[in-house]
């Protein structure tokens, strides 16, 4: 059972610190060079156990025997490294290897190199055995924890694959049908009503854009690298331009001031892009055709403020139940709060205003 990246980094860092201390202390107190090399070998085997645990365990026993045979090369640190290897063996290898490794280390650790005899003091024997057993217990706990984590990751990966298949079989297929049928209708309308042709082109463009987003979502869901997965974003300026054109193609009068130069984190930038898309979609669904859409950007007191205002239809043709999932703005609001910002939306005398504010 391999350790996860964070635990492995901490473990190797601690071993590196110990190795530096061994070299420093050995140099100051004129410790035998062969003894320093032996200790560094034991530390190196502990590090190598991350990748070759069984081989490292066997070589550790050999090095430990050498330390026992040559007491002039043995230091307290060599003895203290033995419980750490017991912990690693219990964590990284099946229980059968713990069964043979721990008793061997227990016996070797009870040999008094100075007296060339076995330690028989009950207290000393008990302490040594308890220390090794505690190391094994900690190792098994870590192993079980990592097994649970690996199982959860596998379940998560399997669920993502299922969602990707569902998206492909349902949403992607439906969007493809919409695009094909709209293109067929466009061919039939060629040279006919210009307004219908314009609306069909808008439907095709929106469907193709949605299809691209579905493909990206499927790619993300099918990605096997859950730790370093990164999202590539369209430049914010391009997103604004696309949504402005989309609103205009649906007959809205878009009025926007020039977006200020502002530096946002990757997550904040993504939120702004998703916010503009979501609000534009809501305007197309609910606002009266041909009405004005006012988009205002401002940077003030270290905050970036994006405000989008549109007219409201006094007698809407659709209700929330008809065309809403009730998730869009709510999810965006949660993301804004997580980034230290806010999202507000509400009616103001015949108009609907949606505001996104983020730290800049």
TrEMBL record:
One Pfam family named in its UniProt record: HisKA_3
Membrane-spanning parts: 12-45, 51-69, 81-111, 123-142
InterPro entries assigned: HATPase_C_sf, Sensor_HK_TwoCompSys, Sig_transdc_His_kin_sub3_dim/P
Entry keyword set: ATP-binding, Kinase, Membrane, Nucleotide-binding, Phosphoprotein, Transferase, Transmembrane, Transmembrane helix, Two-component regulatory system
EC number: 2.7.13.3
Residue ranges occupied by any Signal transduction histidine kinase subgroup 3 dimerisation and phosphoacceptor domain in the UniProt entry: 160-224
GO cellular component, one term: membrane
Domain of life: Bacteria
Signal sequence region: none
Alphabetized GO MF terms: ATP binding; phosphorelay sensor kinase activity; protein dimerization activity
Swiss-Prot/TrEMBL catalytic activity: ATP + protein L-histidine = ADP + protein N-phospho-L-histidine
Protein name as it appears in the record: histidine kinase
Source organism: Corynebacterium yudongzhengii
């Amino acid at each position: 059972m391999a350790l996860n990246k964070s635990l492995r980094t901490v473990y190797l860092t601690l071993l590196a610190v110990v190795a530096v201390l061994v070299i420093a202390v050995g140099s100051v107190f004129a410790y035998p060079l062969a003894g320093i090399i032996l200790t560094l070998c034991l530390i190196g085997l502990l590090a190598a156990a991350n990748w070759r645990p069984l081989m490292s365990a066997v070589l550790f026993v050999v090095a430990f025997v050498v330390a026992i045979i040559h007491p002039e090369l043995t230091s307290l640190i060599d003895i203290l490294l033995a419980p750490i290897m017991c912990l690693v063996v219990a964590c990284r290898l099946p229980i059968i290897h713990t069964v043979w490794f721990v008793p061997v280390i227990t016996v070797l650790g009870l040999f008094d190199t100075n007296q060339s005899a076995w330690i028989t003091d009950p207290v000393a024997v008990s302490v040594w055995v308890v220390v090794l057993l505690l190391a094994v217990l900690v190792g098994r706990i870590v192993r079980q924890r990592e097994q649970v984590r690996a199982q959860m990751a596998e379940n998560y990966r399997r669920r993502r694959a299922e969602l990707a298949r569902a998206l492909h079989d349902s949403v992607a297929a439906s969007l493809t049908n919409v695009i094909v049928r709209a293109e067929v209708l466009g061919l039939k309308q060629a040279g006919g009503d210009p307004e219908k042709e314009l609306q069909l082109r808008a439907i095709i463009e929106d469907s193709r854009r949605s299809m691209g987003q579905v493909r990206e979502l499927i790619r993300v869901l099918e990605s096997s690298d859950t730790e370093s997965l990164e999202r590539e974003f369209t430049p914010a300026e391009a997103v604004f331009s696309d949504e402005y054109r989309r609103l205009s193609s649906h007959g809205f009068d878009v009025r926007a001031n020039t977006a200020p130069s502002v530096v946002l984190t990757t997550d904040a930038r993504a939120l702004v892009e998703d916010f503009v898309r979501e609000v534009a979609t809501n305007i197309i669904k609910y606002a009266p055709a041909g009405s004005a859409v006012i988009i205002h950007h401002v940077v003030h007191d270290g905050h970036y403020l994006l405000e989008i205002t549109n007219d409201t239809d006094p007698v809407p043709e659709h209700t929330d139940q008809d065309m809403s999932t009730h998730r869009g703005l709510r999810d965006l609001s949660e993301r804004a709060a997580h980034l230290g910002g806010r999202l507000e939306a509400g009616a103001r005398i015949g108009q609907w205003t949606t505001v996104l504010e983020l730290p800049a």
